[in-house]
Design a protein that fits this description.
Layout lengths: L7 H8 L4 E3 L10 H4 L4 H6 L5 E4 L8 H10 L3 E4 L22 H6 L6 E4 L10 H14 L1 H7 L3 H38 L1
Parallel strand pairs: 1-2, 2-4, 3-4
InterPro entries: Indigdn_synthA-like, PsuG
GO molecular function: hydrolase activity, acting on glycosyl bonds; metal ion binding; pseudouridylate synthase activity
Pfam families: Indigoidine_A (PF04227)
Length: 192
Amino acid sequence: MPSVHEPSSLAFFLQVGISVFVTGGIGGVHRNGENTLDISSDLTELGRTPICVVSAGVKSILDIPKTLEYLETQGVCVAAYKTDDFPAFYSEKSGCKFLAAIKEANRRLDLRTGILIGIPIPKQHSVTGNVIDSAIQTALREARMLVLNKVIDIALVKNNAVLGAQIAASLAQIQDNDQQKDKGSKSEANDS
C-alpha cells in the first residue's frame, strides 16, 4: 500500500478522484499477530475507504489467512483475478479460496468500504509455498526488514498495473454511461 505508516494516503487518493490503486503487495497481520497485535493500519483504512486496491496479495512474510480474516472483519470485499485461490505475493496460491468481480456493485450499493483484488504473479516468476516458507523462516531469524528489501520484484508490479488500468478504464466507462443516462432522463422529463 502507499506506506504502512500512512494509510491516510488511500483517503487522499479518493479525494483527488483516484478510485483504483495498484501496489506490489499489501501489509497485514504479522505472524504471531494474535499475541503481538501487530496489524498494519492500512487494513483498517481499507475497511473505511471505498477504493479498489490491485496487488499481488498479502506480503508473504505475513500471516495471509489471518490477514484475510481481518479484512473480512473490516467489511473489505476480497477477490482473486483469474484464479480461485488468493495469491500469496510471490506464489500464485496461498491456500485461501475466493473469487468475485465487484467494484461497481460496491459503489452502487454505497457500501463505503474498500475492495482488495489479488492477482497472481505470472507463472514464470512464481515460487512454491514450501520454498517461500523456508526462506521466510530463515529471514525472520535474520531480520524482518531485510526480507522485505530482498523480495522486491518489478514483474509483479507491472502485472498489477495492467489489471488496475483495465479496471479504472472500465469503471470510468460505466460511470460515463450512467451520467449519459441521467442526462437523457432529465431531458425527457423537461420535455414533458
